[in-house]
Amino acid sequence: MMRNIAIALAGLAFASPALAATPCGDLKSLKLPNTTITMAETVAAGAFVPPGRAGGPPPAAAPAAAPAGRAGGAPAAPPLMLPAHCRVAATLAPSSDSDIKMEVWLPAEGWNGKYQAVGNGGWAGIISYPAMAAALREGYATSSTDTGHVGGTSAPLIGHPEKVIDYSHRAVHEMAVTSKKIIDAFYDQDLRLSYWNGCSTGGRQGLMSAQRFPDDFDAIVAGAPANYHSHLHSNDLVNAVPALTTPGGLLPQAKLTMLNQAVLNACDARDGVKDGLLNNPNACKFDAATLACKGEDTSSCLTPAQLDSVKRMYAPSKFGDGKVIFPGKTIGSEASWTAIVDTSTQPIFVALGSFQLAYQDPNWDWKKFDIDRDVKFVDEKTAFINAVDPDLSKFKARGGKILMYHGWNDVAISPQNSIDYYQSVLAKMGGNQSDFIRLFMAPGMGHCQGGPGPDQVNYMAALERWREAGETPATLTATRTAGNRVDMTRPLCPHPQIATYKGSGSTNDASSFVCK
Ligand SMILES: [Ca+2]
Predict the structure, then answer these.
(1) Residue 491, domain member (yes or no)
(2) Count of domains in the chain?
């Protein structure tokens, strides 16, 4: 009602349909449930320097023993160039222990009528300003949340069960509801569509929305989802703890590179193109035991302890009764196996976070990790954070689309986990459901991006054509750049199709490949 009056007044005074229904600064007095709007100000086009991260995760190269993070935060982030917008910040408190920070950025002109919410990484704890900047530049109203705590570890969640719920799913839901109300108040145009765009934790958040809150988003990009949260983190410990606690269980980086080269020698050309990429890694049968040292340890062989660590990385992790916990790493990804490299001193902090949270102990002793006892316990305490429900019928019924992607060389989250979830959805919902959910595997791509394969893809554009024009994505084009020049393009194919070389044309050109 207030909005309609505001529109009417604006129309009378200026007869301009582009005029905001509520001036930016006035959004500060907007009354919304469980919401305190702490900032609403017009920002001119220019550079925005994101606030430093307080208590962020330790740098990957130097895992810190203390999960509380570093005092003083991360180094200053590079400035982001932003178009003119209305910047709104709010604190949400859906529970008495909630302290969810969020921001909404609203284009001052050229709004495309759409909302793009962007996701987090790891244990979240920071607003994703760079992803918001990218969405704003494309004309979206955009928002992001820290999910209710500060700093990229689970430490602030220990002793705060309501904050764990916020991290799990409540913060993103509340953010979506609140953002839509702010968008609605600011513009005199109706919001047309709401999108989710996230990778890793952001992928988990996207799938969680489709499962728990099917009305929040009309279409979702879910990259490399950390959706099997408790088992993903368990898998990290299953791989890392024996390698770290067995004398000689770790490998020098040179041996991981040697192992990767042996894999490529065996399988690279089998997809028709010798390019350092395996288009279909699961078709590569490579037995690391062929590299076992025959006599003394040399740089080109694996000792028994090293071979054990390598085999564990490839294998799915299992409970004592043989039930699979989480799939193994992909053949071809060996060069990035930081979990078993000899500079590693502890399991990755993101994974430790689940156990520290379950046991309510930031000093939980990972050296005593016991698969059956501890994985069952972490499930008992934190499995509600998982987003593995294959029933997406409500989301599908309202026309929802999900575009999943995963890099085959991802060592942070085993790519097979995305295939497993995708297949579980098809199995649950029956028939060929790829008219609403599609998974694109990216050869040689790392976690969300990076790696030797082409990794730059406009997922959102493909999703929008799908949702808005009914154009089901048959292929995506991935681009690789070297020295600021595109040196390779490749199609990404909807799983289980594989990019297949036609036999002629440049192998660096996507048009020389077909999906089949
Ligand atoms: Ca190849």
Answers:
(1) no
(2) 1
